[in-house]
Specification:
Radius of gyration: 27 Å
Strand content: 5-15%
Shape: globular
Oligomer: single chain
Number of helices: 4
Length: 131
C-alpha cells in the first residue's frame, strides 16, 4: 500500500506538468485576443456590521418563545408559528416585504418566510443595512 502512494504522486505530478506545458504551448500558438474594454465595475460589499447584542436579544426572544410553547419551536407546533410571527414582524419593521409560503411537502405543516428588500440587493448593500 505504501508503494502505491509515491507512484500515484509521481503520476499526478507528471500529469500536472504535461497539462501546464500543453496549455502554455497552446496559448503561445493562439492568436492574440482583443483587449478587454469597458468592463462593468464590480460591486464589492463590505461585511455587514452586526451587533452581537442584537443577535443575543433575538436568540433570547426565540428561546422565550420555545419556553412558552412547551420547550419547542418544531415545525408545525405553536412555538414554530410564534417564531415565524416574530421573525416576520422584525423583517417588516426593517423595511422588507415579507410573504409566507405554505410548505405542502413538509413532514409537519408550516410556512416559510420570503423576505425581499424593495429596492433590490445592490441598494441594500450600498445603504449599509444593519441588524
Amino acid at each position: 500500500m505504501r508503494r502505491r502512494t509515491p507512484i500515484a504522486g509521481l503520476a499526478l505530478a507528471l500529469f500536472a506538468g504535461m497539462t501546464a506545458t500543453l496549455a502554455a504551448t497552446t496559448a503561445s500558438a493562439a492568436p492574440a485576443a482583443a483587449p478587454v474594454t469597458a468592463a462593468a465595475p464590480a460591486l464589492v460589499a463590505a461585511a455587514p456590521d452586526i451587533s452581537v447584542t442584537n443577535v443575543q436579544a433575538h436568540l433570547t426572544q426565540l428561546n422565550t418563545i420555545a419556553t412558552n410553547n412547551g420547550g419547542t419551536r418544531r415545525a408545525g407546533s405553536a412555538g414554530y408559528t410564534a417564531s415565524v410571527s416574530y421573525v416576520k414582524g422584525k423583517l417588516q419593521a426593517a423595511g422588507y416585504t415579507v410573504t409566507e409560503q405554505t410548505c405542502t411537502t413538509c413532514t409537519y405543516p408550516g410556512n416559510n418566510l420570503i423576505a425581499e428588500w424593495p429596492q433590490g440587493p445592490a441598494v441594500a448593500r450600498a445603504a449599509g443595512v444593519k441588524s
